[in-house]
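Discussion board: Methods & Data

I've been asked by a reviewer to show the raw model output for two of the constructs in my manuscript, not just the figures. I'm not sure how much to include, so I'm pasting the format here to get opinions. Each protein appears as its amino acid sequence followed by a line of discrete structure tokens. Is this the kind of thing reviewers expect to see in a supplement, or should I convert it first? Here is construct A:
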Amino acid sequence: MKGYVCHYSKNIERKKELSADPRFQELEDVTWIDWYDKEDIECYWIKSACLSTMSLEEISCALKHYEAMYHMVKNDIEEAVILEDDVVFVKDWLKILDKHKDQVEFMRLDSLFHMTYDGNIKTTEHLWPAEAWYIKKDFAKFILTNATFSIPIDNFVYRYLLKMKMQIPILPLCSQTSALTKLDQVFKHDTVWLRDDIEWKHYNYIETKQLLLEAASKKIIVEAKFFEKYGRKIDLKMPAYLELNDLGTE
């Protein structure tokens, strides 16, 4: 089974802990998605370009999940699990998943902090969390084509299923440590993302990815031109300056 881990690169201890977990090591092949951290310029660009009200941390989380799906589609990977870097597993979790995976295109693997595996796939309408997903390539393509930065990634995927009159399948094989150990962790059941009238703006992530790559290349050119003209090195953050500037690169 292919595995992806959405990892905040500065949290080195989490990577060490997860990598050392024998249950995690059951995965045959793992890609760590450790780019597009919340401090990275791409998150600022997405927030600006999409007029997103999401936090930079939420945008980073979404980008990392989209990147996992993008890698799946680009490399023709038929199925995978997408994990967050603080995930923990029940015993024999992959063997249990293997028994049920043919029934679904997408399935949550979290336990909602109270569920126990009883031999069956359960269903839920809860819109969080996203520490572990099982996903097939066709579903990944669908999500990439309809990507959004209007609401957090877990809310988006789960609500999309509900909007299509589908139940959200859940096989409770995993949990996460951060939600249980943060002193400031609060579950906001009245969050704005739960409203039915919230508008989603959709993007084709494959096209968005290409625009991010082009912007990163142009950033290097604009920074060099700025130094050539003004004699000062800068780390350009302002998205608009990439397109409209006094350097002859617009």
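Construct B, same format:
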Amino acid sequence: MIENRRRFNKQEYSERAKKTRQAMSEKGVELLIVTDPSNINWLTGYDAWSFYVHQCVVIGSDNTLFWFGRIIDAAGAAMTTDLSAENIIEYPDNYVQSEQEHPMEYLAEILTEKSLSHCKIGLEKDNYYFSARAAESLYRGLPNAEFVDVHGLVNWQRAVKSSQELVYMQRAGQVVEKIYERVMAVAQPGMRKNELVAEILHAGTLGTAEHFGDYPAIVPLIGVGEESAACHLTWDGGTIPANSGICMELTGVHARYHSPCSRTLFFGKPTQEYLDMEKMILESINIPVASGETEYTRFGMKDMLEKKSVDVLMPDLQRIGGLSEFRKSAALASAYHVPISTHIFTEQSLSIAGSAANCISVEHVDWFSPLYNESIQIGDGYAMMPEGAGLGFSFNQDFIRDHLVKN
């Protein structure tokens, strides 16, 4: 692997293979043919746009682990994985899109040469990169093997993210913030949808000053007006009309890790029918909805409470108008028998949360922790109330001084 392409250290890849082999053992699988591109990448680091031809990673209960793919993609495997040359196995181009022969026939020959033709072999049968013809080729080429469906086996090993994966996801979150910042800056009635998408794609690829934006697994999905009622529509050259809603499904990506985010914009003043949809949504799902972080003052909260469009009211300390307005909003929600939760700014809002009988939770991220001398104490899912004077947290003047923006 060339170092500028390294995303994880060798130890992490080794642990991933170990976890996968343990899961294989529990299902009695001796050999696993991994065809999902994301699983291939997770197991080995292989990172190239080559999934349109047949490729896979083969992992065995012993030390077997090799990449198998088209001959022109072998160099990419050498550059993005730690696999040795003998574990990068290529098939010739005459197998590509051939009606006479199939790459999985070639793989069957390789497995036979490696004395792996009598194994219990797991296949990702519901993976859309693994065709019916691919399966049939393996069945014919390995008549003595027992094939079982283990779709999702590797995916479940990926469920608990490592610390480095979380870093990449956080960076992807910063990228999607940049995307929506650009949307808010340029989107307007009369703009063509393809022009807006061009801005989205540019912002997503540009990323942040520190971290590049990677290609997404999904194109920007955008529905305008009545199109918003349909899922997964892409753009065309039509213009965005005034007094209309626009629904977007976008994602920020860094090092293949995604941070998707759906948002709805409305150009002009929403009609009452449009506003009443909030209540309809709440009535249509059985998951409690927390909202209110983008509303201003208790009067914005009152509108949501009167429409019964929220299960949990979530005032944002900055937008709501400070501590006093937050406290009034909590009391107002109590009159409607609606609980509240805080929206970030935990250090500043924790005392209010603790004094409001209808506050059921606090939202906490540690973005602002360096600003304070004291730390929030959290244990077993509970935040301990501060005991100091005032709000219980004092500013770290040294940190603030070191991070002042100076002209």
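Answer (T.O., handling editor elsewhere):
This is acceptable in a supplement if you add a one-line summary per construct. For B, something like: The domain at 161-269 is CATH 3.90.230.10 (Creatine Amidinohydrolase).
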